[in-house]
UniProtKB/TrEMBL annotation:
The keyword Kinase applies. Its EC number is 2.7.13.3. Residues 171-397 form the Histidine kinase domain. Residues 99-151 form the PAC domain. PANTHER family: SENSOR HISTIDINE KINASE, TWO-COMPONENT SENSOR PPRA. This is histidine kinase. Pfam families: HATPase_c (PF02518), HisKA (PF00512), PAS_4 (PF08448). Transmembrane segments: none annotated.
Length: 411
């Protein structure tokens, strides 16, 4: 029989007393791997599924192929266990069945298959042990289903937590809004007195207070939208003008150690979004970038237009539609993220920051906002190589930005 063929039949040595224990027609097509070993532990028969699990078709009766046709057996922790130390060898001494034995088959190409084995000793009429039969269940599909179920349960749990957070947020935002309304009214009453005083310093302080109150009011609006108590207001937005208007705020947020570079393309087209939410998303990404560069670095925020289709943009959400997109990129030169962190980076309440330094909601809210705008959010990152977040929004109309290409804004 060719050793490179997986389309095999059960191998039954002529005259073998073990052959009588195996029904050829029934065993060959089972979805469970089945094989026989004689009293010395040599493999003497196996079916197609067993060979599929092993990834090869070992020679029947070869004294070097003992206990199992697989290259290696591993514990569930990935530690190699010599065949002579496994229950497959032990059963020849104890003469007792081994049930529900979980192990991992490592093939010669390095791939691994988790299995569940049930090993039964075989005896002749005189009670002499002839060997054993092992039925091996491939657990790959079952484990995939278990992981999918865990993801669903986790998503449900997170959804329930987010619902509670939304309820709390709504109450806090309303109270916050009431206080801001009082502050805004007080500032309005102060405005004429500030103008009368004709003091440039006082006017500057007044403008800072007014801007802070307006931004805080926008934050309260975002919190209310997050709790889904108010409908979002969409408008036609020039991304370049938004980023230019935010430059001073972003510089303040990231600190003096980090160089801010704006690279705004003149071909960036308008998009339809909520202006305050877009500003909050960019600011959130900028703050995360700052935290990833404690010793300083460069933060680049850029815009450009891109045509996306399913062929060149495979990592899309379910709401994806091919077409022209305006892309806002936030790129840092920070510490980057390991693959295990990258997989969870948008999960609600997931954070790598120390207690009290972050809630784990920021990136989740950014993703939620981008999805609501029918956009796409992607991230690329490697340890020590920084991170790049790209916000893709469907273009709105044919109008292009009036911003100058390659605007550089160092500190």
């Amino acid at each position: 029989m060719p050793k490179n063929s997986l389309s095999i039949s059960v191998q039954l040595p002529a005259g073998s007393s073990l052959a009588s224990k195996l029904n050829h027609e029934l065993i060959e097509h089972l979805p469970v791997g089945v094989y026989l070993c004689d009293a010395s532990g040599t493999v003497v028969a196996y079916n197609r599924k067993a060979a599929e699990i092993w990834g090869e078709t070992p020679s029947v009766g070869d004294s070097q192929v003992k206990f199992c046709g697989a290259h290696k057996l591993l514990t569930l922790q990935g530690v190699h266990v010599p065949h002579e130390q496994t229950p497959l060898a032990e059963i020849l001494v104890t003469r007792k069945a081994v049930t529900n034995f979980r192990t991992i088959v490592e093939r010669r190409d390095g791939s691994r298959v988790p299995v569940l084995a049930n090993i039964v000793p075989l005896f002749d009429d005189a009670g002499t042990m002839l060997g054993f039969m092992n039925s091996v269940q491939d657990l790959r599909h079952q484990i995939e289903q278990e992981l999918a179920q865990q993801h669903l349960e986790s998503a449900l749990f997170q959804s329930q937590k987010m619902e509670v957070v939304g309820q709390i947020t709504s109450g806090l935002a309303h109270d916050f809004n009431n206080q801001l309304a009082s502050m805004s009214m007080a500032l309005s009453l102060m405005e004429k007195e500030v103008e009368t005083a004709n003091s440039s310093r006082l006017s500057k302080y007044y403008a800072l207070c007014k801007e802070s109150v307006e931004r805080a009011t926008g934050l309260a609006e975002n919190l209310l939208r997050f709790s889904r108590k108010r409908a979002k207001r969409l408008e036609r937005v020039d991304p370049n003008q938004i980023l230019l208007g935010m430059a001073s705020l972003v510089r303040t947020a990231i600190g003096s150690k980090i160089l801010l570079n704006l690279s705004l393309a003149p071909d960036a087209r308008f998009l339809k979004a909520n202006k305050q939410q877009l500003e909050s998303a960019v600011l959130n990404l900028a703050i995360n970038a700052r935290d990833a560069m404690p010793d300083g670095g460069t933060l680049t925020i850029s815009t450009h237009e891109a045509h996306l289709d399913r062929a060149n943009f495979s990592h899309h959400n379910s709401n994806f539609k091919p077409g022209s997109y305006t892309v806002i990129s936030v790129i840092d030169t920070g510490c980057g993220m390991a693959p295990e962190v990258l997989d969870k980076v948008f999960a609600p309440f997931f954070t790598t920051k120390e207690d009290g330094q972050g809630t784990g909601l920021g990136l989740s809210m950014v993703r939620g906002f981008v999805n609501e705008m029918n956009g796409q959010l992607t991230v690329e990152s490697e340890p020590g190589q920084g991170s790049c977040f790209r916000l893709h929004f469907p273009c709105y109309g044919s109008e292009h930005s009036i911003a100058i290409d390659g605007v550089d804004q160092p500190r």
